[in-house]
């Protein structure tokens, strides 16, 4: 699946099921007349997000796009998956059935499983260690020393994923969303995040967007089945990949993942760095939702989210080895 120099992917003419069927007739004829259930198939003002997926015949997931930037992401994910299957055969990533550049189409085998968000309420003390071990194991494999070379050989270069906002953007635009007393805390978190991240960390291959909707679990056994949506895979520091976990998992499970990661890799993660990325991600997410007039994922407010973040820092202060400077 090497990418010829100067040859870019193409994309669908419009976000419709008919356009997808026409594309499938070209790249996967056996699926073109199947039952197509689209997800996220709607116009978008940002070309980067003019993409969607569809389940075909309850057996395949098809990724596609209708703008250049989004098509590049689909094609990037296709090449990443091929490279990872070779570099890390045991990594639980989707199986590529077929992939095409013209237009950019990625067909994956569908796996029956639930997102982490759907099962996290079932993770109690008895299940916590197994869940933490599965998450840490996937991250340890993805961050392995041999992975960057394999991906560079297939792709030719690795992008650097970014969190939802810079600290400058948070300082400039977040103030009106919170109470006066909270604003001082937000500013201090931004200052601390800048200080922590001033010195670059070590470089590995990162998933780039490992939130709870992008890892799938067996509903009965609570074992990790698959890590999905690898369109943001690139070069970064290992702590970047854990930046969602303090909110998604809660402090107890998050801390267990950090401990398992250290045992599996022999390398300790810097919790301060994770929380610095977490600040930029969590507050950045609240910022763009508010500015776009879109409700936050849990239906609450930026004021409540800032209180949540304060609570996480307080809880972490009670965990051995956790940051106490926030």
What does this structure look like?
With 326 residues, the chain is an alpha+beta fold. It has 2 domains: 17-109, Phosphorylase Kinase, domain 1 (2-Layer Sandwich), CATH 3.30.200; 114-316, Aminoglycoside 3'-phosphotransferase, Chain: A, domain 2 (Alpha-Beta Complex), CATH 3.90.1200. It contains 11 helices and 10 strands. Strand 4 and strand 5 form a beta hairpin. Helix 2 (68-87) crosses helix 5 and helix 6 runs antiparallel to helix 7 (180-197).
H/E series: HEEEHEEEHHHHHEEEEHHHH
Order of strands across the main sheet:
1-2-3-5-4
Helix proportion of residues, in percent? 40-55%
N-to-C span: 46 Å
Which stretches of 5+ consecutive residues score pLDDT under 50? none
Q: Could you report the average pLDDT, rounded to the nearest whole number? A: 94
Give the count of helical stretches.
Answer: 11
- Oligomeric assembly: single chain
Structural domain count: 2
CATH architecture of the largest domain: Alpha-Beta Complex
- Compute the CA-based radius of gyration: 20 Å
CATH superfamily (homologous) name of the largest domain: Aminoglycoside phosphotransferase (APH), C-terminal lobe
**What's the total count of β strands?**
10
Sheet/helix structural class: alpha+beta
* Strand-residue proportion: 5-15%
What is the name of the CATH topology of the largest domain? Aminoglycoside 3'-phosphotransferase, Chain: A, domain 2
Shape descriptor reads globular
Question: How many strands, which pairing sense, and closed or not: the largest β-sheet?
Answer: 5 strands, antiparallel
| CATH domain class of the largest domain | Alpha Beta
